[in-house]
């Protein structure tokens, strides 16, 4: 996690990027990190170029989904979290996650993706911590998700429990 | 299920109650059944007396929750389903369920409750089928829920699968 140790230190003037640079992109920046020429920042702004999101999802091998539905899903998600890599004037989407919610008790996290370039460097963990922090700010106390087998331990490391008290995640799909 | 065989037969003139009677309560009636002096109807109308909902939840022993948050949760749920028992001019809330959703891909069903008087008579199953039908109408294809151990088989009977392909439902709660 050392690589990302400076994340969420926006209050530290030494690590804070110039306000004008951030304002170009979003007023919803919630965390940042500087590494060499690249700066990474987390945002809850949900105006995302859907082609860029598709590119990110392609990079991890996800099936393509109709953009019309992706647009609607973003619009009706309670929280959308993105990670942007910025080099000089170029920025690139390198991380994404979103959550549905009743705005009161429960949230469910979906579509957690980190670009392969940044996998294994603690960025996914940092993003999930940021998701939890944001949801807690909104007084959501029950945060849920459905984890593929290979990431169950990853989420366990973040404090997620599988099948607590025998509660089972269940799915219904059309025939 | 015989007891509920007439549910969702609103198109059958013989079983359809008078329109004026239904209109008193809701324009969102989606299913109905007549049994002796009592008529039961399903509704997606979300203007619910919160005290009545609390009474229903009390009847099954759920912990009370702040009404302010319950109101918000209803407002931001994608689908709210209620079952009403009507005898002459009296009506009583006897069933409830709701779902959060991104309005595009996923829905998660929460707070499924049937009044003890009506448990074991197929009403829960009928309500869940109605939930699935409504969500399918909205083109939601991934319907999820978190089932307590004693109701896993109930949901399995409705076509829900637990841990398909090793996917685990996981929970995070504040310390």
Descriptive tags:
6-stranded mixed sheet; 5 helices; alpha+beta; homodimer; 175 residues; disordered N terminus; Aminopeptidase
Give the helices and strands, then pairings.
Two copies of one chain form a homodimer.
Chain A: H1 19-23, E1 29-35, E2 38-43, H2 50-59, H3 67-75, E3 79-87, E4 90-101, E5 106-114, H4 123-137, E6 142-147, H5 152-156, E7 161-162, E8 168-172
Parallel strand pairs in A: 5-6
Antiparallel strand pairs in A: 1-2, 2-3, 3-4, 4-5
Structure, explained:
2 copies of one chain form a homodimer. The first copy, chain A, has 175 residues and is α+β, with helices and mostly antiparallel strands. Chain A has a single domain, classed as Aminopeptidase, CATH 3.40.630. Chain A contains 5 helices and 8 strands, in the order αββααβββαβαββ. Chain A has helices at residues 19-23, 50-59, 67-75, 123-137, 152-156; strands spanning 29-35, 38-43, 79-87, 90-101, 106-114, 142-147, 161-162, 168-172. In chain A, strands 1-2-3-4-5-6 form a 6-stranded mixed beta sheet. In chain A, a hairpin with a 2-residue loop joins β3 and β4 (90-101). Chains A, B: GO terms for molecular function: N-acetyltransferase activity.
Write a brief caption for the model:
Two copies of one chain form a homodimer. Chain A has 175 residues and is of the alpha+beta class.
What quaternary form is this?
homodimer
CATH superfamily of chain A: Gcn5-related N-acetyltransferase (GNAT)
Largest sheet, strands/sense/barrel of chain A:
6 strands, mixed
Overall geometry of chain A:
globular
Binned, the helix content of chain A reads 25-40%
Count the E strands of chain A.
Answer: 8
Radius of gyration of chain A: 16 Å
Overall average pLDDT of chain A: 85
Tally of individual domains of chain A? 1
């Amino acid at each position: 996690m050392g690589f990302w140790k400076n994340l969420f230190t926006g209050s530290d003037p030494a690590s804070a990027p110039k306000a004008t640079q951030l304002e170009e992109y979003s007023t919803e920046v919630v965390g940042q990190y500087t590494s060499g020429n690249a700066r990474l920042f987390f945002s809850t702004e949900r105006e995302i170029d859907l082609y860029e999101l598709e590119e990110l999802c392609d990079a991890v091998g996800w099936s393509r989904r109709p953009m019309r539905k992706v647009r609607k899903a973003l619009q009706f998600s309670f929280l959308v979290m993105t990670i942007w890599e910025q080099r000089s004037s170029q920025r690139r989407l390198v991380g994404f996650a979103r959550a549905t919610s009743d705005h009161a008790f429960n949230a469910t996290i979906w579509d957690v993706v980190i670009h392969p370039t940044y996998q294994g460097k603690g960025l996914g963990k940092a993003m999930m911590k940021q998701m939890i922090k944001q949801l807690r700010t909104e007084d959501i106390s029950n945060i849920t998700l459905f984890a593929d087998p290979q990431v169950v331990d990853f989420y366990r490391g973040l404090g997620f429990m599988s099948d607590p008290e025998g509660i089972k995640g269940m799915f219904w799909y059309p025939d």
